[in-house]
Amino acid sequence: MTARSLVWGLTAALWLAWGCGGGADDDPVARGRSSYLANCVACHSTNPRLPGPIGPPLAGSSRALIEAKVMRNEYPPGYRPKRSTHAMVPLPHLEPKLDDLAAYLGSVRPASIP
Q1: What is the 3-state secondary structure (H, E, C) of 8-49?
Q2: Which of 4, 65, 74, 82 has an alpha carbon within 20 to 30 A of 93's alpha carbon?
Q3: C-alpha angle with apex 92: 88 to 94, nearest 5 degrees?
């Protein structure tokens, strides 16, 4: 193997490694979207700006609200619920995903009302 072949081979390997990095594993918004789609859309819309069949829109939800609802089915102090129903059940298995869910839902602007 010549030195030139070795340099080209190492360069190609570095480019491939660089191009494969920075995927969804590094992006809390992408991870949060995946968690949302896997766990929340049965009740909430696939579009967090829209109401779902049971749950209200979640776009723009704060970390405090997400944690209170997901972990304890409560509201944070001073929060005024969008609906009077109490259909949601705690989902404590999502505790490791709370930051990602908050990143995703916080990245989606709520729908504006005309």
Answers
A1: HHHHHHHHHHHHHCCCHHHCHHHHHHHHHHHHCCCCCCCCCC
A2: 82
A3: 95
Q: How far apart are CA 93 and CA 76, in angstroms?
A: 20
Question: Per the domain annotation, does 71 fall within a domain?
Answer: yes
Does residue 7 form part of some domain?
no
Residue 71: give its domain's CATH number: 1.10.760.10
**Two tokens, residue 61:** 């939800």
Number of domains in the chain: 1
**Cα dihedral: 75, 78, 82, 87 (round 10):** 20
Does any domain span residue 9? no
Tens digits of residue pLDDT in 54-109: 999 999 999 999 999 999 999 999 999 988 888 999 999 999 999 999 999 999 99
